[in-house]
Input
Amino acid sequence: MNIQVGNKMGKTVRPRQSFQIHPVGFVRRSEGSTWIEILPPFIPGLQGLAHYSHVVVIWWANQNDTPDARKTLVTHPPYTPEREMGVFATRSPSRPNPISLTTCKIVSVDEVQGILSIQSIDALDNTPVIDIKAYFPTSDRVKDYHLPAWLSDWPEWFPPEGLGLG
Output
């Protein structure tokens, strides 16, 4: 399919345009610890990260990267299975581009070995990490937000113990 649509600037956009994304590292889990192993060419990118308390990890949900999962536009989220919702209204890993993100507490940064030890990521072992960004409260949170009523029992903050993925 090669549909062309106009955007607000009057330019033509191709919905099936391709991009190349390469991992900068991989999530590793062992014996209750979680870290990101940064690939050697990207280790210098860790410089100065130890000055922050948290990072936003952008990762590829590779275990959901199938042709069928990429066609998913409507889903039943696990936190409200009785509801049918568009994937853009969920955090579902089954979506046209299986990109996920998690804000994680930094435990330590080893700028020599390329190890970023973290807490509380909802990615599995060997998950490709496509980017890491320092957490900035001024741009990574909002003061006045609105959630649907069915999420009213969720905690306001991510639980310190994480989501139980080990």
Notes: DSSP finds two helices and ten strands in the chain. The longest helix spans residues 67-70. The helical segments are 67-70, 137-140.
